[in-house]
Amino acid sequence: MAVSMRDLDSAFQGAGQKGGIEIWRIENFRPVSVPKSSHGKFFTGDSYVILKTTALKTGALRHDIHYWLGKDTSQDEAGTAAVKTVELDAALGGRAVQYREVQGHETEKFLSYFKPCIIPQEGGVASGFKHAEAEEHKTLLFVVKGKHVVHVKEVTFTRSSLNHDDIFILDTKSKIFQFNGSNSSIQERAKALEVVQYIKDTYHDGKCEVAAIEDGKLMADAETGEFWGFFGGFAPLPRNAANEEEKTVDSQDTKLLRVENGQAEPLEDVSLTRELLYTNKCYLLDCGLEVFVWMGRNTSLDERKSASGAAEELIRGADRSKSHIIRVIEGFETVMFRSKFESWPQTANVAVSEDGRGKVAALLKRQGVNVKGLLKAAPVKEEPQPYIDCTGSLQVWRVNGSEKILLPASSQSKFYSGDCYIFQYTYPGEDREEYLIGTWFGKQSVEEERASAIALASKMVESLKFLPTQARFYESNEPIQFFSIFQSFIVFKGGVSDEYKKYIAEKEITDKTYNEDGIALFRVQGSGPDNMQAIQVEPVASSLNSSYCYILHSGSTVFTWSGSLTTPEDQELIERQLDLIKPNLQSRPQKEGVESEQFWDLLGGKAEYSSQKIGREAESDPHLFSCTFAKGNLKVTEIYNFTQDDLMTEDIFIMDCHSDIFVWVGQQVDPNNKVHALTIGEKFLEHDFLLENLSAEAPIYVIMEGSEPPFFTRFFTWDSAKSAMHGNSFQRKLAIVKGGGTPVIDKPKRRTPVSYGGRSSVPDKSQRSRSMSFSPDRVRVRGRSPAFNALAANFENSNARNLSTPPPVVRKIYPKSVTPNSAERPSKSSAIAALTSSFEQPPPARGSLIPRSVKGSPEAPKTPDSNSKENPMSSRIESLTIKEDVKEGEAEDDDGLPIYPYERLKINSTDPITEIDVTKRETYLSSEEFSEKFGMAKVAFYKMPKWKQNKLKMSLQLF
User: Fewer beta carbons within 10 angstroms: which end of the chain, N or C?
Assistant: First the structure.
C-alpha cells in the first residue's frame, strides 16, 4: 500500500511507540488527543479512537485499534472515526486489528482496557449536549451484565426496570445497593461488586455504605426494606417475558462478500478456503454477530476506507446494532477470523509486514518524526528462572506395571527413556510446605505405564486433599522447574521396568538399554551445577552438535568432546557429569576439529552434524481462558488483560504460555470436575484454540486455589490473602467491598518468598540444603530475659516439640550494645543455664543431706496431640511477657535486653529504676551480678523442705 504524508493525520504522529493506551476524540472531524487523566471517561454524544499498544516478549509491538461510537453521536462523527482508524493503522505500518465499538454493545476486549467498567456520561462536543457538571447527587439505577467483563447501562429508576435475570445497582446519596436477580450467577454478582466499588470510590470518595439485596428476600431484613422503600414498597417482580433485544444474529450462515467499487457482492456456493482471498482485494466475512473486513496487503488506503464503509452499510441496513465490525490485514488475521475457514495455512507472510512497516517508518523519519516505536524492538534476553525454591526434599518412584518403586537417593536423578517416573518435591512455601507431584514419561515408555503413572500420581494428590500442584512432563519437553529440582539429571537409553521389557520382547525390538561397559554417547547441557543434564544419544557422529559438550565411553575408555561454540562453563559441566557417569576414570579431552582417530572409530566414522542449539519453544505472552467441561466437551472463553480477580473460585481456568499449560482449579469447583483437571489440559492442547500449533507433549500443571506456586503467580500482581479467603466469589468480594478493600482471611498472610537460586555449599538464610527442614523465623517475645528462658526450660517437656521442625530462631529485638569487655563477658544465657541445671539434682557434696527423689518433681507436661501447634507450657510462658522500652543511653546485655546495677534494682534503693516490672527484677541484671547475687540460691534451694521445693518449681512454671 502506497503511503504519503497527506494520508496521515498529524495527531497520530508518534503514536504506538510504547505499550499503553492512547485515546483521541473526534472534534470538528479531527482527532484530538485525550489526556490520560480522562481515560475511561466517555460521553454519549461523542466518537473516539482508541489505540492499545502491547509490547510482546519477542520485542515486537502489537496494536489493536478501536473506534467507539456514543449512542447520541452524529453520523458524520461516526464516519470520521471509522476513516481515522484506517489512517492510524496506516501510520503504524498496516498491521493493526481494528474494532468498531457501539455504546452498550462493546467487545469484551475493549471493556477489559477500562476495568471494572465504563459508565458513559451525557454530553458531547459537536452533538449540542452540555457536559454534565458537578451537582447534587442524583439517585441512579444501573443494570450490570457479564461474567468476565461487565456492561453497565443506566436504566429508568422504576420498579419495572428490575428483573430476575440481571444485577442492578441503585446508587443513592448515602448507600449503594446491589440487587441480585434470582437467576443471576455467583460470578456475575461478584463482577458487579467491582462496579459497586468503582462507584463508591469515584462518586462517593470511598465513604458510603454498601448493601447486597437478594431477589425474593422479604422485608424481614432491614436493608432489603430500605431498598424497596425507594420503589414505594415491596412487590413481587413479574416473570420475564421474551426480550427481543436479547435475540442474536449469530445463528445465520457465514457469507463471504467481495468489495468492488465500494459495493459488497456475495460469493455464492463456495467453500471457505484461504485461496479465495486475493491480496489486491478487500472482502467482508459476515458471521452474524461479527462482520470481518479483510484487507489485502496490496490494496490502497481508499480501497480500505471503501471496504469499511461497505461493512457499516451492511449492518445498518439490517438494523444489526449488536454486530461488531472487525478489520484485519492480510498476514495478521485474528484466530477468530481464521477459524471460520475450512483450511488455513499455518504460516503467515510476516516478512512483507516488516518491509511495509520499515517503509512507513522511513517516510515518517524523513519528516522529522521519532519512529523508534515503529521499528521492531530487540527482544529482551532473559535467563529462564525456575521461580521455585530449590532447597526442598525429593522422592522419586519408578512405575513398574500398576505399582511404583521408590528409588534410592543415589538413583533418583537417573531416568531411563523407556520408563515412567513419579516424583514428589516438598519445598518451603510462604507460610507452609508446598508440594509438587509430577509424572515423567520417557520417549520409549509404553502407554500402559503412562496411564498407570497418571493414576498413581492422582491418588497421591487426592490423598493430600488436592493441595499439591500436579504436573505432567515428557522427555525433551521438561521445563526449567524440573531441571532445577533434579539438578544433575541423566537420561539413559532403554528401560528396566517389566512392562518395557515385555513390550520390546513382543515387538522383537533390539534392547538398547544402557550398559556401562558398552559404547555410549551423552550430550551434556545446562546452565550450571544446579541445572545440568546428560542425555544419552545414538553413538554416531551425526549426534554431535557444535553447541554442546559430549561424553563418549567404551568400557574403561572415556573421551570428552567440546564443540567449537561451547564456553568454559559448558566444559566445566562435562567434568561434573563425568563424576556421575564414569567416576574414577581419566578422560581424554577432544576438541572439535582436532579429534583422534580412535574417537571417530568409536562413532563409526565422521559425518555431518548440526551446530544449532536444541531447546524447548520459547514462552510466549500468556493467554487466560475460562473453561466449561461437560460430557467430554471443552468450551473456552478468552479473558483479556486478566488480573488475579478474574480467577473465580467456582471455575476452572487455563493459562496458555505456548510452552507450558497451567490449569487453575478453584476451591469451589465441583469435585467431579477437579479430578478431570489434567484431562482438561490435554483437551486444550488437542484443540489448540489459538491455532498456534501447540505440542501435545507440552508440560501441563494442575494448580489448586490457595496452593499457587510462584512460577504461576508470577503472571499476576498476586495477593495471597485473596486466595486464602473462604466463601464463594460473591461473598469474598462483598467482604472486601464492605471492609474497605482489605481481604478478610482465616490464616496469616504469607511471608515474603525466599529467593529462587540454586543450592550452595554453605547454606545461609535464603539458601538451605535439602537436609535442612524449614520453618518461619519465630520472634522471641519482647521482655523475656535469658534467665527466665533458662529457668522455664527446666520445667518444660523437651519432647513436646515436633522434632522435624527446627527449634525457634531467637531474633534480637533490641540492637546489641557494644562495650569494651563485651567480647570477654560470658553470656547471661550460659550463666543462668549453668545455675539452673543443678536445680534438678543436688550437688554431689550435698547428696547425703538431700536425698535424690523424682517424686517431688512436678509432672512433666504431656506431649500435645497432632492438632496442637506448640507446647502448652510454651504458650503460657509466651503470654506472660515484660513490656518495656529501652531508653536512649541505657546499657543492654549481649542478648539485647537493658541491664542495671543491682543497687538500683533493690526495693530500698535510693535511686530506683522506674518503668520496669518490679516482680521480675532479676531480669535486668547482668550475668555476672546474677551469678554473684543468686549463686547461693541453689544452696538455699536444697536446704528447703521438699514441699517448698515443689512449690517453688510450680511458681516458676506459672512465672
Answer: C
